[in-house]
Structures are given as C-alpha cells and as structure tokens.
Design a protein that fits this description.
The structure holds 3 protein chains of 3 kinds.
Chain A (H helix, E strand, L loop, with lengths): L1 E12 L2 E12 L3 E6 L5 H8 L4 E8 L2 E2 L5 H6 L2 E4 L11 H8 L6 H14 L1 H5 L10 H13 L5 E5 L7 H18 L2 E6 L2 H7 L2 E6 L2 E7 H6 L1 H8 L2
Helix pairs in contact in A: 3-6
Chain B lengths: L6 H19 L3 H26 L7 H19 L3 H23 L4 H21 L1 H4 L5 E2 L17 H25 L1 H11 L1 H6 L4 H27 L1 E2 L6 H14 L6 H20 L3 H15 L3 H21 L16
Antiparallel strand pairs in B: 1-2
Helix pairs in contact in B: 1-7, 2-7, 2-8, 2-10, 2-11, 2-12, 3-4, 3-5, 3-10, 4-10, 7-10, 8-10, 11-12, 11-13, 11-14, 12-13
Chain C lengths: L4 H38 L6 H18 L4 H24 L7 H23 L14 E4 L2 E4 H23 L1 H11 L1 H6 L4 H23 L9 H16 L4 H21 L7 H15 L14
Antiparallel strand pairs in C: 1-2
Helix pairs in contact in C: 1-5, 1-8, 1-9, 1-10, 2-3, 2-4, 2-8, 2-9, 3-8, 5-6, 6-8, 9-10, 9-11
Chain lengths: 236, 342, 303
C-alpha cells in the first residue's frame, strides 16, 4: 500500500518556487531515497511533507490529504522528521531528548518498552542519560535523533542527510541502524542523501532530483548499476 | 521660493493660519485650553520622535524630564519669584542635563533593556520628587501663578489669559518644529537615521555613537522639559502624580499612534492624547487609559507605523496602482521615514 | 553571661528586618519568575505583568470582602482565573504579534498595562482598600527574637510556590514540553508539540504566579490600582540582578533585593522613601557592569 503519495507537488519559499511538480509514492514498509546535488530540492521535499513550506498539489499520507497542515499536525499523524542538523534539543539531557520523542503518547507501558529497547540497542544512551545533549558527538547526536524519532512510534520516518558530517565508519553504523529499524519494526523510511552510494545500497527505491523535478527513478539496485546515471547525477 | 509651492508647505501655512485665528473667532475658553495642552504635548512628542523615531533609542521615561521642567519652572516662580517665561530656558537646560546623564548609561543598553531601565525611571521619579519635599512641596505639590504676559495683552484685555497661554504654546511648538526639521535635514539627522538602521554601519562610517546618542537623549529631554514647563504654567499646579508612569505611557502611546519617524506624527499623537480622554469620558465613561491601551493594541495589529505610517502606506499603494495602470512614471512619492517599531 | 542590651536590640532588629526582607524578597522573586517565564519563551518583557496581578488581586478582594468567601477558597479560585486569563490573553491578544519585532510586542504589553490599570480604576475606584491576611499578625518568639508570623508565612508560601514551579518544569512532562518549546520551537513542532499553546500556557502560569504575588503583598501594603507598580520595579531589579534568563537568578535576585531594601530602608537614614530609586539605580548598575546578572549565563541561540 502506498503510505505516502506526492502528486505534482510544488513548493515555494515565499514567492520563489523550489519544487516544480514532483510525483512519487512511498510504499509501506519500504526504504525510499531521494538523491541529487545540493540545491536540487531534496530537503525542500521533506519540508513540504512536514508543512514547513508553502505547498501546492496532492500530498497524501495513508490516503488522507496533508497538504497545508501545520508541522505539528503532520507529526501527530505519525510522520517523524529528523531535520537537517538533527534538531537536537541541545540544552536538554539525552534522556529528556528521548522523552520529548514520546511526549504526546499516553501508553505508559509502551513508552517504557520502547525506551528499554532503545537502551538495548544503544547501551551508551542509558549510561549517559543525564548528559547534556550538546556534548554528544555528531554521530551520537544522529543516533539520538533517530532514537527520539522512534520514540514517537511513527509510521513514516523522514531522514534529512543522516550521513552529513560523519566519518565513514559512523555512516555505516547509522545505515545499519536504518536497515534494522525498517526490517525489525517495519518503519517506512524516506531519506534524503548526498552520499548516493551508501543510500542506494540501503534503499528499495530511489528518485534523483534535479532543480526541483525528478530526473530519474528506479530501484536501488537499478540505479546503483547504471553507470550513466551515476556519473551524470550522482557524482561517482 | 520653490519651497512655498510644495503641498506640505502650503498645508503647514494653512494650518498655522487656522491655529492663529482659531482662539479669537472659533474656540471657546475650554477648547483653547485643550489646544494649549496639545501644543505642549506636541513638543514632548517631537522630542520622543527625535530620540526613538529617528535615532532608534527606546525611552519610556520622558515623564521624568517633563517633571524636571515643570518643577524647575514652578520652583523658580514660586520660591524665587522669577518671571515664568524666563524659567523656560532654565527648564530646558536642566532637563537636557538630566537627559545627557541618562544617556551615559543608555549608551550601553539596547532595545528591551533600555526600555526596562527607562520604565524604571518613570516609576521611580515621583518618589524622588516627593523625597525632596522642602524644595518640591512633596505630595502637596506647588501652585504656580500663570505665566505673565510681558506685552501686557492680558492686562489690557486684548487677550484672555487662556488665549495668551495658547499663543505662547503655539509659538514654542512652531519654534521647536522648525528646529527639529532643520536638525533632521542636517548631518545630525543623517547620523541619527544611520544609527537607527544599524549601529555597526554607523561606526563604520565614522559616526560617533557616544556623541549622537547623548545628543539625542539630551535634546529629547530638553523638549520634554519645556513641555513640562508649559504644562506647569497652564495647569497652574504641579504634583508628583502629574508626572507618573501613566504620563510616560501616554507620551509613548501618542508618539506611536501618530507615527514614529514622521514629521506630522507628533501632532496627530498630541491631538489624540489630549482629546481622547475628553471624548472617552463623554462617550464611553471609561478611563482614558483603557482607550489608549485598546487603540495601541489595535494599531499594532493593523498599522504598526502609526496613523501617518498607515497614510503613507496607503499613498504608496495608490501611487503604485496608478503607475501600473498608466504605465508612466508617477511623481516621486513623498515618502516618510517609515519606521516599523523595532 | 551579660549581653549588652543595645547590641541585643540591634541584633534582634537586624534579624527581624532580615526576615521581613526575605518575606518581601520572596514576593519580588515570584513576580520576577513570572517575568522570566515569558522572557524565556518569547524574548519579550511583559510590562503589564504587575497590572494583571493587581487586577486579579482586586478580584480576590471582591470575593473575600463582598461575596464573603473564605480566603482559602478565594486563593485557588483567583489563581485559576489568572491562569485562564493569561492563556486567553496570549491566544487572543499576543498571538497576532507573536512573530512581530520585539518593540511591537512590547508596545502591545504597554497597551495591556494601560488597559488593566484603567480597568482596575474603573471597576474598583481609587479609594484605598485593605486586603485581608490569612496569617495572624502576632509575633512568635524564636530564640528570644520576635518574628512576625506573617513574615514567616509569606516566606513559606513563596518557598512552596517556587518549589512547585521548579518541580513542574524539571520533573513533569508538560514542563519538559514547555522548556523544549521555548528553546527549540521548530524542533518541538517536528515532535508534534503545539508550540503556540505551550506559549499560551506560559502566559497562564505567569499570570497565576503574578496573582499569588499580588495576594501576598496586598495585605502588607495598601490596595489601590497602583499596588504592583513598585513590586514590578523590584521584580525587574530582581530579574536583572539575578540574570534575566535564569529562574534561579530570579529567586536569588528577589531575595537579595528584598533584604537589601529592608536593611537600607531601616538603617540608612533618609533613604526609606527612596527605595524605588534604589531599585532603578541597581538596574542601571547591573545592566552596565554585569549584564548577565549574578547567576545568568551567556545568551543562548535558538533553533
């Protein structure tokens, strides 16, 4: 089933158009990657979904239209968005960051279970619960941001450039986590990446954006194997 | 002589003419008195306009400087027997000194903190007045004999005393208006505007923040001082409560409502501040503060640049439409310093 | 053991003034806290904080003296009304200018100052009223020193209030959401938090705290529409002294201001009625020489 559908979506920063009518779908349970150069409109796509920019066109989540809804409403519908820069609540502690993820939920037991599971995957998070989040490394903050998003028990997880500024080994860990979340918990993931190689290895499907429109699309494997696509659009 | 042909000059002279004949043929005693207050407040608001509208420094404490002027005049007349007209320059000077003294710490304060500090000044100044009661008469205040008219016009029944006070106030208001207009067109005015837009840019251009900010504070205080003196002789009484924080509020409200950074704004503001309590009591039976407050809030939603700002925006919109439909160059819009508060 | 009676008398006097200073200081700290709550959420100062508190204090007065309800019922009712009023004011009056330049917001709060001051005068007039106190006026003797029960009561209530606020923000989920919304509004929205309502709640809490400080100070001074102007000034002083972004600073600042004013007022001849001016001088002094206040930290950037 298509969890997220974009149909001829246009997006504006003020009066300036940044997306010129893009259409794609994200099937439930899949990992979809949006690739492209800087300024192609990748981040704008995620911001459009989260109601952070002015949007036109068809935007549907779980069959319901979400175009024009406010950021917090979109989040409440089950879309967790980890923005560029991770959105770490820097002055709050690690635990408080996680607690903010679950702040709207009322199922006490579910929250405790989820927290326990996160601590199992990331034992260091339990040990450093009281540490101020600003003191974490880039990779740790990225993991914290993903963990916090998971605390929302989202249906769809939006990740904006999860590899940004991270060392290659850390990037591998992050993407391993992404695959695990998707396989074990069935979380649908839409990620935006500059690091196309790693993204294509993880994604089921990928779309390449160029100046606000979709230039190429295909499965992760297809695009990874297509040399002309890689050289023209993905830089390798 | 081209200046005489510009619409603003014509309007100004027409209004001046109207103002000159009004008390003789149109206005009764009470309205004449009210208009005298309008001119006094006009002077105070022109001071605020200079400081906040053109130089960008928030001050909520000008009531303190009106107090300096009002009390200077009262004390000199009442205790030392001075001629009240002679006290005006002294009041202006003393108030200016006070303004400069405030300006020194104010140099380091910006925006919100400056507003906070000057607000504190407004709250605490009545206490200071009450404290030196041997000089100021404490809470009782001082009764001031009204200004003598050196031309003997009142004595010879050519004018009533209200009319004399009216013309005195009008003369002072016009003088201060011409002075501030000349000031704003000079390098000083340019320096003020630069500081308002960006202090960094000002410093980069070699403009001394210390000199100009202190100047702005001093001038604005001097204006307030003269306004206070006028108020003192017109009311024939001063007390600490006449210069409390509500006065500062009404000055700020009036200046903002009229339109900061415009030349006509202070006049509109002064008219509003003096006449709205009169109507408030007749129509709403409400305290004037409530009217001020509601109007201030409503204005912040719709016309943060005040009435004059709203007028200029409307004019600009109209001219744009005309230019678009004609496809020809319209005349230069007589733009104001459009200042959005903040 | 022979104690010099003059020394004992002066020590007793200092202790009494100290207690009185802490009592009034607690009130200033509470109002300062109300100011800081809003400042942290919006970077704006609510100049109308005092007048809103005066208004709610008058409501309490009416409920006690005209409707003859017990003080202990009126207290929570008034606080509840204040909280509701604060939320309403934010949602209706402040919301349209939430994103406007700071000076616009300040002018709106100045407008509120005028409106509330006028309303208080209009509804209740300017004749001085007495506000009932729930505390007995006798002194109690601690170690031979006569301490007013009222002062101790005020200190106790302030402590409870400050503790409650602290616990609310540090231990509860809602408090966490409010902190997060104030510091990181955009990120909080991405987590589904209705940041606008968190701001409204902040105004509500502020108004509630203000109501408490109004009801605490009213019995020890005269109740008229200008009740809270002095308290507002001292609250500004406390907030600036403590560091305008720091709640702990508000408490420390408030207590310091209270004690300073009590001691100066009693022991420095001639300054008794200049305490407001002293407050002003302290504000200017701190802003000039140590703008971060005693406890405050450097300016934080927001996301």
């Amino acid at each position: 089933m298509a969890l997220l559908e974009l149909e001829d979506v246009v997006a504006y920063y003020g009066a300036v158009p940044a997306l010129h009518g893009i259409s794609f779908t994200v099937e439930e349970g899949s990992i979809v990657a949006i690739l492209g150069a800087n300024g192609a409109g990748k981040t704008t796509t995620l911001r459009a979904i989260s109601g952070m920019v002015k949007v036109g066109g068809g935007l549907r989540f779980g069959g319901r239209s979400i175009a024009g809804r406010s950021t917090e409403e979109v989040a409440r519908l089950g879309i967790a968005h980890v923005p560029e820069g991770r959105g770490t609540l820097s002055q709050l502690t690690l635990l408080e960051n996680l607690q903010m993820g679950s702040c709207l939920r009322h199922d006490r037991r579910g929250i405790d279970e989820d927290l326990k599971r996160i601590h199992e995957h990331f034992p260091w998070m339990r040990q450093r619960s009281g540490q101020v989040a600003a003191l974490l490394s880039g990779g740790e903050q990225q993991m914290l941001a993903i963990a916090r998003a998971l605390m929302m028990r989202p249906r769809l997880l939006l990740l904006d450039e999860p590899s940004l500024g991270l060392a290659p080994t850390v990037v591998q860990s992050i993407f391993r986590i992404i695959r695990t979340i998707n396989q074990e918990q069935g979380v649908t993931i839409l990620l935006v990446e500059q690091n196309a190689r790693t993204a294509l290895r993880t994604a089921d499907r990928a779309y390449v954006l160029e100046v606000g429109t979709i230039a190429v699309s295909g499965t992760g494997d297809e695009l990874a194997r297509d040399e002309s696509v890689r050289r023209s659009y993905l830089g390798y | 002589m081209r200046a005489l042909q510009r619409p603003q000059t014509v309007l100004f002279l027409a209004l001046l003419l109207l103002a000159l004949v009004a008390p003789l043929y149109i206005l009764g005693a009470f309205p004449t008195l009210e208009w005298t207050y309008v001119f006094a407040f006009l002077i105070a608001m022109m001071g605020i306009n200079l400081l906040t509208g053109f130089c960008g420094q928030i001050s909520l404490g000008n009531s303190a400087f009106m107090a300096v002027g009002g009390y200077a005049t009262s004390i000199l007349v009442f205790r030392l027997g001075w001629n009240s007209l002679a006290t005006f320059p002294v009041a202006a000077a003393l108030a200016a000194v006070g303004g400069i003294l405030l300006g020194i710490p104010a140099l380091k304060l910006r925006g919100l903190y400056l507003g906070l500090a000057t607000f504190a000044l407004a709250i605490s100044s009545p206490t200071l007045i009450r404290h030196f009661d041997s000089l100021t008469g404490g809470s009782q205040g001082i009764s001031v004999p009204p200004a003598e008219d050196p031309f003997g016009l009142v004595a010879s029944h050519a004018l009533t005393s209200e009319q004399w006070l009216y013309y005195l106030a009008l003369a002072l208001a016009v003088a201060f208006f011409l002075f501030s207009r000349a000031l704003l067109r000079s390098d000083v005015g340019r320096a003020f505007r630069t500081i308002r837009e960006s202090e960094t840019a000002a410093v980069a251009n070699g403009i001394s923040l210390t000199y100009y900010k202190t100047l702005a504070f001093g001038l604005s205080a001097a204006f307030a001082g003269v306004a206070g003196s006028l108020d003192a002789v017109t009311t024939a009484y001063v007390s600490p409560d006449s210069f409390d924080v509500n006065l500062s509020l009404s000055l700020v409200v009036g200046a903002v409502i009229g339109g900061l950074g415009t030349m006509a704004g202070p006049l509109l503001g002064a008219i509003f501040v003096v006449w709205s309590p009169v109507y408030a009591q007749q129509i709403f039976k409400a305290r004037p503060d409530i009217v001020y407050g509601v109007l201030l809030i409503a204005l912040m939603y719709t016309m943060p640049q005040g009435l004059m700002g709203g007028y200029y925006r409307a004019m600009a919109w109209y001219l744009r439409k005309r230019r678009a439909s004609r496809g020809a160059e319209a005349g230069p819009a007589s733009g104001p310093e459009s200042v959005t508060p903040g | 053991m022979g104690t010099d009676p003059l020394l004992a008398a002066s020590v007793q006097g200092v202790l009494q003034q100290l207690v009185f200073g802490l009592a009034t200081g607690g009130i200033y700290a509470s109002l300062a806290l109300a100011l800081i709550l809003i400042y942290r959420a919006m970077e704006a100062i609510n100049f109308a904080q005092g007048e809103m508190a005066t208004f709610t204090t008058f409501i309490a007065w009416t409920l006690v003296t005209q409707v003859h309800l017990s003080y202990w019922i009126v207290f929570p009712i008034t606080v509840a009304v204040a909280i509701g009023g604060g939320i309403a004011i934010e949602r209706i009056i402040i919301r349209p200018v939430e994103r406007a330049p700071i000076l616009t917001v300040v002018l709106v709060t100045l407008g509120l100052f005028a409106v509330f001051n006028g309303l208080s005068g209009l509804i209740w007039g300017y004749t001085i009223k007495t506000f009932p106190t729930p505390f007995p006026v006798r002194p109690v003797f601690i170690g031979g020193v006569a301490i007013g029960i009222q002062d101790l009561g005020l200190i106790a209530v302030s402590l409870v209030l400050l503790l409650a606020i602290y616990l609310f923000f540090s231990r509860t989920r809602l408090g966490l959401m409010m902190r997060s919304s104030a510091l990181y509004p955009e990120s909080s929205r991405l987590l589904g938090v209705r940041v606008g309502w968190m701001l409204a709640l902040g105004w509500g809490l502020s108004a509630g705290v203000g109501a408490v400080s109004g009801m605490l100070i009213a019995p020890i001074t005269v109740l008229d529409p200008n009740l809270m102007q002095a308290v507002l000034l001292y609250a500004f002083t406390a907030a600036v002294l403590g560091g305008i972004e720091s709640p702990l600073g508000a408490v420390v600042g408030g207590l310091l201001v209270g004690v300073l004013l009590a001691l100066v007022g009693t022991y420095v001849p001639g300054l008794q009625d200049l305490r407001l001016v002293l407050g002003f001088v302290v504000i200017i002094g701190v802003l000039l020489f140590r703008p971060g206040g005693l406890v405050g930290r450097a300016h934080v950037t927001r996301v």
